[in-house]
Amino acid sequence: MPPAISPTRRRARRKDARPGEIVEAALGLFAERGFAATKLEDVAAAAGISKGTIYLYFPTKEHLFRAVVRLAVLPNLEAAMALAADPERSAADTLRLLAERFLELLDSDLTAIPKLIVAEAGNFPALAQFYADEVARKGMALIRGVLARGIARGEFRPVDLDGALPLFSAPFLLLALWKHSLGRHTDIEFNPRAVVATHLDVLLRGLAAEAPP
Amino acid sequence: MPPAISPTRRRARRKDARPGEIVEAALGLFAERGFAATKLEDVAAAAGISKGTIYLYFPTKEHLFRAVVRLAVLPNLEAAMALAADPERSAADTLRLLAERFLELLDSDLTAIPKLIVAEAGNFPALAQFYADEVARKGMALIRGVLARGIARGEFRPVDLDGALPLFSAPFLLLALWKHSLGRHTDIEFNPRAVVATHLDVLLRGLAAEAPP
Amino acid sequence: MPPAISPTRRRARRKDARPGEIVEAALGLFAERGFAATKLEDVAAAAGISKGTIYLYFPTKEHLFRAVVRLAVLPNLEAAMALAADPERSAADTLRLLAERFLELLDSDLTAIPKLIVAEAGNFPALAQFYADEVARKGMALIRGVLARGIARGEFRPVDLDGALPLFSAPFLLLALWKHSLGRHTDIEFNPRAVVATHLDVLLRGLAAEAPP
Amino acid sequence: MPPAISPTRRRARRKDARPGEIVEAALGLFAERGFAATKLEDVAAAAGISKGTIYLYFPTKEHLFRAVVRLAVLPNLEAAMALAADPERSAADTLRLLAERFLELLDSDLTAIPKLIVAEAGNFPALAQFYADEVARKGMALIRGVLARGIARGEFRPVDLDGALPLFSAPFLLLALWKHSLGRHTDIEFNPRAVVATHLDVLLRGLAAEAPP
DNA sequence: TATGAATGAGGATTCATTCAT
DNA sequence: TATGAATGAATCCTCATTCAT
Q1: Distance between A210 CA and the closest CA of chain B, angstroms
Q2: Is the CB of A38 less than 7 A from some atom of nucleic acid strand F?
Q3: pLDDT tens digits, residue range C48-77?
Q4: How many domains does chain C have?
Q5: Does residue D87 lie within any of the structural domains?
Q6: Which residue in B34, B123, B206 is closest to A206 by CB distance?
Q7: Domain of C63, in residue numbers
Q8: How far is CA D155 from CA A124, B129, D96, D169, in A?
Q9: Residues D166-177: what's their mean pLDDT?
Q10: Whole-model pTM above 0.70?
């Protein structure tokens, strides 16, 4: 026999779940249509609630947008940082793991976030700043750490860190953007797994320390 | 002494120049604010004409958008294709020249086009298809040709062409997007020249055929 | 030792008090913000109950408004009528007592009622009628009676009763409206006691029967 | 033959007239329904234009409200001040002229302004301040000047100026408010001319200097 | 009785587009 | 051709009211 749940408890559970449900519905629609072109009424419908209910949890459409970005980004950023922090792992293996993680994410709507940020940065400077400072900066520090470790350990030759910083991420960005923009409107297809495999192969070779004579 | 031009002639010249002036003004504003957030009234003001006049040359805002994309993209694509077609040039040098060309473009507003496409693909499927087919497809064919030539000439080792295709362009895309979105809202800066130099260095090493024993 | 009150009894007492508590809270907020700008949620909070509970006692916001008006007005109107009915008292003294009573009321929120009526008459015709018929008409009859008595007793010279009717009340109305509208937004201040004293002085002289030669 | 008017001129005349037409239509509806209950769509309809056109001349509903107040009040205040400034006129005659002027105004919608101010002061503090400072303060200074002149000239006995200040205006306020609120919803009627006549009669007697022995 | 989550009608505002001049 | 005043569809947000608990 399951433990009895008081009516109050059951209601509370509903209330606790709502913001997440709304954010999830919003992510899907924002990913598909962009921020401006998404009507809150449609978000509500997608979440199975009514327009007004959204406003019980988010004071404006922009706040909902921020919540979407936060919720979609922060857990993954933290996971990536934890993964990159392991001092035992070689730099190459760390990059491979990060790449693997990205491929998993690519099936969800989460990778629509960069598209949304790119599209709306101009209209939401505060959000752009938040993303730049909280996500981009941290992500870049993460990569910089891995590259520096690789160089220190003799895996990689000493390259210009500032110049090398974007190189690892750039193809992932391209794949994510493609999927959520042009990819929906053309039959040109990328095979993400192949692209990522080639990327790692080429990048790691390109960075590899010279073979000792 | 230049030949006298009758007022009628002058008017005609003006008329011919108008669409270009409007498109240029629109590009600047679209680059800054995005498509939806740009008012046609502001485009008109930037072009030094009145709102109604735009409609003498472009039936809708979307048509103007298409003209912007076409005008901003096609000349450069053609230049790049011409550049890549030279059978004398090594693959590596071709990539270097393309990179150099990109760096020159980065100072203009032209590199805002990818941001616009990414942002608006969902709202303008026809435009997305046009861009995918006319620009992306041709650009990819161009790169594929260069890589294939490099492999054929023994410059590059035989890599998976489909997987390698986006690798060359990805950092350029990242730099262009950064400049027109987050870059405007943070003090994090990239040095495009350094990034591109490192990119070429790493990529060309990563692709290089094994040194003979 | 007070007699024990069963929980049920206490609840009942509470229930009886509720409507009054709600009306009181509503009067305070209506006085401050007006009817339309007052949210029932705020009334509920001020009364220490929840939004839904108001609907157990008042079917609509308008009904609550009516209750506020009735409760705030009727007791005072009755007191004034009782006061004016005393056939012993001179007309001048009656007016002085009414003025004194008004000055006492001016410290409470009750004098916000005229402002509310003026503001909302257009939106609540039924309320306007109720107020006109039940309050204004009776108040005017009261004043008319006092004036008529004063004339009959030889205190006042015979003036046009219809023309004189509003003269006594007008400064009180002005003071009440000022306090609840402009008075909140400027440093111009009236001294109600001085205004009322001067009003009585001037009015009673102005009405006074000619001194016998 | 009337002088030819260029199309541009004719259009310009239309444009110049628009704000006034809109303000007039708005005054009528605000007077009838109050600010909040008046839809801009109805104002537009009353002015014979469409919703959007209002926004060509007034950035928000509140700005329109301010324009209504300014336009309705300032000309009359200035006329009153000019009238009161004549040093030849006796204080009593000045008050009579002011009263006469008010009676003329009472037929228009202009006297709805006090009702609007009273009703909306809480929601538009800035407007309330404007009205208090620009209208009420100046109006009071005007009356104070007339009373002081009357006392100085020996027409009036020396009364407490602060206490006497609101006495002249109060019945006019009452008449204006009555007309635009309760007056619309009851058959109780005031005869403004009779009220004003009695008011002047009583007030001037009440203020009159003691007859010399 | 009491709660407070959910509803949805209603209105201010924006801006692409039209059209009389 | 060129203008810019006018239009009205579209959408965010508020809050009185309902109702499951």
Answers
A1: 11
A2: yes
A3: 999 999 999 999 999 999 999 999 999 999
A4: 1
A5: yes
A6: B206
A7: 7-207
A8: 69, 90, 14, 19
A9: 98
A10: yes
